[in-house]
Amino acid sequence: MSEKDLIAENKALMNALSRERKARKLAESLLEERAVELFLANRELEKTIKTLKSSNLQLLQSEKMASVGQLAAGVAHEINNPVGFISSNLGTLRDYIEDVRQVIDAQKFSIKMGIECTDAKRYVEINAKVIADLNALIDKIDIDFLMVDINDLLDESIDGVNRIRRIVADLLDFSRINSADYKNTDINALLDKTLSMAWNELKYKTEVNRDFGELPAVYCNDGKMAQVFLNLLLNASHAIEERGSITITTRHIGDDISIMIADSGEGIPKNIISNIFDPFFTTKNVREGTGLGLHIVRSVIEAHQGTISVDSQVGQGTSFIILLPVTGLDP
Amino acid sequence: MSTQHNLLCVDDESGILKSLIRALRNEHFNVLTASNSGEALQLLSENAVQVVLVDQHMPDIDGLNLIKKIKAQYPTIVPVILSGLVDMEYVLAAINRVDVQRFLAKPWHDEELKTVLRQCFIYYDLAQSNVALNDLVSQQKKQLENLTALLKGQG
Predict the structure, then answer these.
(1) In terms of pTM, does the model score above 0.80?
(2) Do the interacting molecules here have an ipTM over 0.90?
């Protein structure tokens, strides 16, 4: 190769090099621009996510408020009944006590006179009048009826107060579901504990079969979960007219555990089965149920990201099946 | 109006019925109680009832529908609603659609309850005597017409 050629080639190479440098510079500046764009876009996205999260929270909150509103209307109705008769009963009781006080005052007067009167003849005279007046008073106010009815009145009013207490306790339970203690829990042991709590209710008419599979520890709120089991067990027992069985089956299936509580009771008619989880839906009479039990059960299960389903045949029995993820929900 | 006054209270809750019997024990009317619509209609067929006090919410029937049923058979009965939940829409429906005379809320005040029920019996009696007086007027008018015709015939 000649010197001239070499120089020409060198020049060409230099040109190529400078072109490449230019191109690289351009590419670098483009890259930098892109990076800035990406950075900005990313920041925008993060902002959007934040907004979405907070509006989701607001949505959840408003949904909660809506259900609270629904609950409040129901609660007002449930509580106004017992408050109605308790307050009326108390008014009546005050009148009754006024009547009883009159009898006591008349008797006090008779006793006082017996002690203070020294003239025997006069005493007999006055005492006869006092006793006649007292008898007339006792007849007028019908004291025998009064004494019996005071007992009834108090019993009924105490029943009413207990009903209000139960409604309020159920409500409080319902509102506490979201802020509770979660821990790794042995569900089989918890079921046994709940069974012994409910034993007084169950022992007379039910045979309880336990079919417990091996379960991993489940991350859950054990107090709430115990309440779920208790509600279901008591419902099962109430569904059994005279004698029957309750079968509790637990299994570990993949990432979930399943708990089935099945009874041989009267079953749930098809036309109401879709309502059983609604707040204040109850087939029991007012003294026995508030209609919040299954509603709370479902709320607890859903707070644990689980599901509950029901299967029932009238005359054959009802099974509730709970599926819970083993990991549970971090509160 | 010397007929015996009877009040019928209809509520599915025995605690309410018993407290009503107690609260109204010294009133000048009898208190009958029914815990469902069947019992209520049965008692109405056996007794001359002038005023009914009906719970809004019962498992077998809604209070307004029960009153509609009662009014269809006994149009002169004066109905009163006793309601655990006072919801504007319901009150309006009760007054405008079913012609409920009075609306009481649970928990109620005994004195208010007594006043309302007394007024309802007075209302019933006034309506009845109004009907009776109207009858009398039309009867007397007829007599008068007959007499006028007689007089004209003589003249």
Answers:
(1) no
(2) no
